[in-house]
């Protein structure tokens, strides 16, 4: 039997609703979207806390309220962000993680650590200019180690996001040091839409990551694509024993008619089944990733 496929639904990021109206903002909307994604085959939901108007929220209470709203509606595993480049300072970025000590009802199962730094300014090829010139997403080694400690203290497993191959090499070093534990959950984040701080979402880019994958480590890897269709990387991941992380938070999927998150999950789950891979339940994903109960 083929290895089960973990689908992590990336439901909102900081995407606006102009290109896809189904982006969830409030705790209730995120809870509903997560439950629908679970029914469609997702084992994990990744979310960003948002205010009612859609602006980024860094209020720990808003994170806890969203986690509670998700837990009330399904058994899906929960993965939250640390706010990407929208918030500065290690302590501020992990403030909501520290607040999760309250217990399982408020605690995420996973949270993202980006294991490296890159420029995330968007290049507008039509205008031949960058829309910004100073947006460097900084995650130095001490930040990674601080965030890992914060998560360890609370029992949240880090998911290690790699925008480029050097991020994967940093993850390997930090696994070697014991800062992160195996099995590691590593995410390759491909970039389209003028974001040039990561690799393009192609079959060859995905194979390039696999080419430098540490051979002696237990790593469950997944793929996502910022501002682009995940299909090329998803095909490789499904075929090569990886996992996938699609969602309308990353890309509005005009090819599929600007669908809901659940419809995107359903699309990729059908594709996986056609390759002979069934989707993992949250309990199966928990066991595969060794997430604390
Ligand atoms: Zn995110």
Helical content stands at 25-40%
- Count of DSSP E strands? 12
Bound molecules: zinc ion
Strand/helix succession: EHEHEHHEEEEEHEHEHEHEHH
The unreliable regions are none
CATH architectural category: Alpha-Beta Barrel
By DSSP (H or I, 4+ residues per run), the number of helices equals 10
Please report which band the strand proportion falls in: under 5%, 5-15%, 15-25%, 25-35%, 35-45% or over 45%: 15-25%
CATH class: Alpha Beta
Largest sheet: 8 strands, parallel
Radius of gyration: 17 Å
What's the overall geometry? Answer: globular
Summing up helix and strand content along with how strands pair, one would put the structural category as: alpha/beta
Mean pLDDT: 95
CATH superfamily: Aldolase class I
State the distance separating the first and last CA atoms.
Answer: 26 Å
Compute the number of structural domains. Answer: 1
| CATH-derived topology | TIM Barrel
Order of strands, main sheet, comes to: 1-2-3-4-9-10-11-12
Walk me through what this model shows.
With 293 residues, the chain is an alpha/beta fold. Strand 11, helix 8 (231-240) and strand 12 form a beta-alpha-beta unit. The chain has a single domain, classed as TIM Barrel, CATH 3.20.20.70. The two termini are 26 Å apart. The strands form three sheets. The protein has an eight-stranded parallel β-sheet. A two-stranded antiparallel ribbon has the order 5-8. A two-stranded antiparallel ribbon has the order 6-7. The chain contains ten helices and twelve strands. The protein is 35% helix and 16% strand. It is globular, with a radius of gyration of 17 Å. Zinc ion is lined by residues 13, 46, 48, 81.
